[in-house]
Amino acid sequence: MKEKKDKNILSVRNLSFSYNSRKVLENINFDVKEGEVVSILGPNGVGKSTLVNLISGVLEGYEGVIEIEGKDIRKLSSEDIAKLAGVVPQSTYPAFDFTVHEIVMMGRHTYTSRFKAEGKEDFDIVNEAMEKTKILQLSKRRFSELSGGEKQRVIVAQVLAQNSPVLLLDEPTSHLDINFQIEFMNLFLSLNKNENKTIIGIFHDINLAIQNSEKIILLKEGRVFNSGRVEEVITRSSIKSVFGSDVFVGRNPVTRKLYVSPIFSPANSDNMGNLYPPLKKSLKVHVIGGGGAASPVINLLHSRGYNVSCGVINTLDTDIETAGMLGIPYVAEAPFSPISLNSQEKNLQFIKSSDVVVLPGVEFGPGNFSNLESVMEAVRMNKKVIVIDEKEIGLRDHTGGKAVELYRKVIENGAVVVKSEDEILNYL
């Protein structure tokens, strides 16, 4: 059973990091105690994944100090860091089509070498990891043959095979349906409770984080905005300051834990408190959605009286929940499926009937690349196109460069570029 400790297992001091000359993290300070469950929250592009990559030793060249179990990771090899902290990513694709057992065994590479083959202990640990993640029956299957949820189980098992005291979760459930999300969170919480694993996670879903965490670290513009117990950090004012969205913060009547729900009342002022004049427009604005990126935009535009539509969005996406609450028409696609020709055509019909098309900071992969192609079509139709360029497209491109190339063509051919959703109002 989990035994509460008062010892810091992770200490971050005066941590700053830049990509080239762009400052991503600045003067980050926090401690995590052994056996804690901590969530790191903040808007897209705020540096959450960068922070995880620094702690795990993937990124170097930072200022400040990162210590795990009192050891400065600058002085450790990558193998030694891996023995202290294992990373569960959103998804990963091995270069070769290994079997499930082979991939999980790769988690033991820090304990073996070309001069030392895997021993009984390694096989026992691997089998135990596969049992915990319910994939032992899949051990001889090829990774390419598995479903998305099964693949993520394999990756979790591989990390468990590292036998690290710290688990770093980089949005490991963001592409999974609700059943898998619950299953994985129960697994991580079980490891925390029964094996005293320290869990440090990044989550896209605020409620998923606050329902399962003892402590929250809230990042804003590359800095720690606030950190501490959930009740101290998750407040209406802090969420509005960090995410720019007005929310209701209440308690679940059954669990008595906090939960966050958006407030969709008309916006009368900008984020600086400046009052907007009364406004009601019939202008039609179509917003490209995905991954929750459209939600703050359609909320803002709807509250200001514009005629808003959205597409193409996944049926499990936050954007579809937002559109449904606001009564905004949208084009939907089945979960975990590429955008079909039928959905793309419906999206283009919305674009044709719109006066303005808005592209928020959507993450692009092969499945939703046609959304970006639809934006290019809007440019060719001489529609006014507004691009929110809050997070560099290179960090959102998961198509091997195709999205970067087309995105730049959209801008070169006349799209208006803004840095936040509030700036959209200046161009409508």
Largest sheet, strands/sense/barrel: 6 strands, mixed
Structural class of the secondary elements?
alpha/beta
Quote the distance from N terminus to C terminus. 58 Å
Inertia-based shape: globular
**What is the residue-mean pLDDT, rounded to a whole number?**
86
CATH superfamily of the largest domain: P-loop containing nucleotide triphosphate hydrolases
Task: List unreliable stretches of 5+ residues.
Answer: none
Number of helices: 14
Task: Please describe what this structure looks like.
This protein has a 6-stranded mixed β-sheet with strand order 6-7-8-3-9-10, with helices on both faces. It has a 6-stranded parallel β-sheet with strand order 15-14-13-16-17-18, with helices on both faces. A 4-stranded antiparallel β-sheet has the order 2-1-4-5, with helices on one face. It is an alpha/beta fold. It has helices spanning 48-55, 78-84, 100-105, 120-132, 148-161, 178-195, 206-212, 230-233, 236-243, 295-303, 318-326, 341-352, 369-380, 402-412; strands spanning 8-19, 22-33, 37-41, 63-68, 71-72, 85-88, 166-170, 198-202, 215-220, 223-229, 247-251, 258-262, 284-288, 307-314, 330-333, 356-359, 384-388, 416-418. The chain has 14 helices and 18 strands. Helix 13 packs parallel to helix 14 (402-412). The mean pLDDT is 86. It has 2 domains: 8-260, P-loop containing nucleotide triphosphate hydrolases (Rossmann fold), CATH 3.40.50.300; 284-427, Ribokinase (UDP-N-acetylmuramoyl-L-alanine:D-glutamate ligase, 3-Layer(aba) Sandwich). Helix 14 links the parallel strand 17 (384-388) and strand 18 (416-418). The chain starts with 7 loop residues before the first strand and ends in a 10-residue tail after the last strand. The chain is globular, with a radius of gyration of 23 Å.
